[in-house]
Automatic annotation (TrEMBL):
Intracellular or extracellular location(s): Membrane
Transmembrane as UniProt keyword: yes
Transmembrane segments: 399-421, 428-447, 496-517
Membrane topology (UniProt): Multi-pass membrane protein
Protein known as: Ion transport domain-containing protein
Amino acid sequence: DWDFIPPPAWVDSEGERHLEAWCRTPLTLLVRPDEGSLGAAMRAASQAERASLLQDVLSSGCADPNFPPLYWSSPAIHACLEGDVVSLDQLKENGCNLRQSVEWGLQAEPKFDLVHAAAFNGQEDILRYLREDFPPSFFQRVDALGNNALHTLLSSSKDMGTARFLLEQEVDGFAFNHDKRSPLSMAIEVLPELAQLLLEKKSRFEYSWWGMDVYWFSYDGVVLPLEPRNDGDACGLDGSCGPVQVRDQNGALTTIENLIIENEAKPLLETALMLDLIDRKWRNFASDMYWSRVAKFTLMLGATFVSSIAETGSLVSYVAQLTAVSAWALNLQVEVSRSKSLQERLKNLNILDVLDYFHLTAVPLLQALLLAELAGVDVHLPGEPLAVGVLQISLSLRLLSYISISRALGPLCVTVLAMLYDALRFSGLLIIVFFGFANGFYTLIHYGNTEESLAALDFDYSYTGIMTEMGIWLCGQAGLDVVQGLSEETQVGVQLLFWTFLASSYFVLLNLLIAIFNTTYERIISNSIPEWLYVKLATMLEFESDAENPGVQKYYEELRVRSAQRNVLLEKPKA
């Protein structure tokens, strides 16, 4: 009788384990003698020999293919985990119940079936074998934790081929398990290709109308059903409702759109559904809030600039300072309204946040210094002119980041910025070459020459002077002024370094130019739209946090009314 589960292994005094069977029945060990992470059995037996032995055992009746009945480590489950279609077919021919469900891990009920087991390890062949005997509904069952086969697949194998087959069997990619996770939310984190496929299932091209594409959209499982923002609240149009919430892999509550932003799943934003959601947000509330914020910031930038250059005590300076302070107060109000807890802001701090904090600190400080000067108080801080210039540059850069959200300039700004990032890699190499040659020039010139003799020459041979001259060479104004007055032997060495430096530097710069205007440019320009959509959606999600805004409430109501209906899509999705 093979229908028993061996006891745990015996451990001797030296810690060695004996008679190890991993709590598997003999038939289970015969079906799956090698689990990979555990020790292997029957190493000398071939696949054909093992299959023949399995058939002999099943035919003799000494082993029940359905034993144990509820324990997850059954022969059929292991055949599915292993992807062994031959063994599963032998078990079936000898009376194995392919509809069996077992208690998986610590689950409280026996609802984990063969489909879950095959999905767990991405065994598409097993699923196709089961499809020969069972309808699609067989593949749609859930386990004791509410996981369908797609949940199970995404928690383990993440196999795209198996996922496609399950979708063909109409397994719900938007169903929530008991942990408030859906296959869509999980796929955004671990398998974006599947997430894109799921989002595409929520839209369908219908026809073209007057040159515009008409799509059918469903928002269920992505934004709908709307949920109360606070426990115990009712869902109404008073700002108490928000998009359906999910949990990420760390257990934190979030939304589908926030998951896309947090995981930088930018290609998903080019699906028809996400383009429609972004367009609706922009029309209902984001456009007005965006232009209002741009106007306030532009006013602060312009007033700060005028107050910096206006003559002290003039009418223009008074008006500019008053305007700058008023605009600063408006921008401070914007920052306070968007502020979350300090801990959360510091956790998600980015360069734009740093610029905002710098501006909100520097602008009133500058106005205070100007007022002190007007009052006759002599207050001059070290590096004050330089700081004022840096402030104007940083204000302009921040304005550029605001403008990058617009459709006209956004993709272009993203493209230029991405090209700049790519150029930094080559710049790093150029910097190493630059400083290496600067050290060579400095050492060559100063070796054997006194500081007094070099100071008498009509050239600045300090380290910064040499670097400045090298920078002029790179800008196309190369000259050998640096060698005048030096000894003949030193001049030969300097000229050798001079020509070697120019050849090396221009070689690096030419490679940089070729990379930017060939493969790098093509790659970046093809990704400019999703990059721009990513920036735009991230900004609009910040606007959307203002739940009491009438435009936000209108947006949610529009989604609720227009779901499962047709709508014109202005932005064409990526093919």
